[in-house]
Design a protein that fits this description.
Elements (H helix, E strand, L loop, with lengths): L2 H14 L3 E6 L7 H10 L2 E9 L4 E8 L3 H13 L21 H22 L2 H22 L2 H35 L3 E4 L5 E4 L7
Antiparallel strand pairs: 1-3, 2-3, 4-5
Helix pairs in contact: 2-4, 4-6, 5-6
Length: 208
């Protein structure tokens, strides 16, 4: 069984009997996230957001079953038309037994990947948290330098660590800004979630 089929089998198992699921995507395989969400949406779910979990920042992609009658009708039609997803059969919007989108689905999958990446960058670029870590790390290293007298090693680190974290924050903000431009151009609307974080939502449900 290929990696794509394993992902698809895992997805179908999750969405078969739950209305609210989290799809765990390793950081090394984020390119498949948009395709998996596309397939889930063909079976009546909607993308709801992401969490970054663990040392390697694995994506936990949240999917929620849609209550829209049109989405439910499409899900029923796709369940009848694609009974072998994850078992070597045809996959809606993808080439057979794969997570490679057919030409008609490429734009939708690309947009989903952009939405997922933006949400992940917002999670990773928590300004208050990163600035707190920057100044705390600098303070700890400065204190260690005073206690140990290892000034030659620790004083440069006390300046370098905060600078690196602040630099990471700026890079994150720049990447978000570029993605935000593309999402806006695609017709997505900027909103805030319950925690006050910026997000983008599609103007109309995906079709396919």
């Amino acid at each position: 069984m290929s990696a794509a089929e394993r992902h698809l089998k895992y997805l179908m198992r999750l969405i078969s009997n739950q209305d609210d699921v989290e799809l765990v995507t390793p950081a090394s395989d984020r390119k498949s996230a948009g395709a998996l969400v596309y397939v889930a949406e063909c079976f009546g779910f909607r993308y709801s957001g992401v969490r970054l979990v663990g040392r390697y920042k694995n994506l936990h992609v949240r999917l929620v079953r849609s209550t829209d009658p049109a989405d439910r009708q499409r899900a029923a039609a796709n369940l009848a038309a694609f009974p072998g997803v994850g078992q070597g059969g045809n996959v809606p919007g993808m080439y057979q037994a794969s997570l490679t989108p057919v030409p008609e689905a490429q734009a939708d999958v690309a947009l989903l990947n952009e939405l997922i990446m933006y949400d992940a960058l917002v999670q990773a670029g928590n300004r208050r948290q990163l600035l707190g870590m920057a100044w705390a790390s600098g303070g700890v290293l400065l204190l260690l330098a005073l206690v140990t007298a290892a000034y030659a090693v620790l004083l440069p680190l006390a300046m370098l660590m905060p600078a690196m974290l602040v630099g990471a924050l700026r890079i994150n903000a720049a990447r978000r800004a570029k993605i935000a431009e593309r999402l806006t151009a695609a017709g997505c609307a900027r909103v805030q979630d319950d925690a006050g974080r910026d997000r983008y939502v599609r103007p109309v449900p995906q079709t396919g």
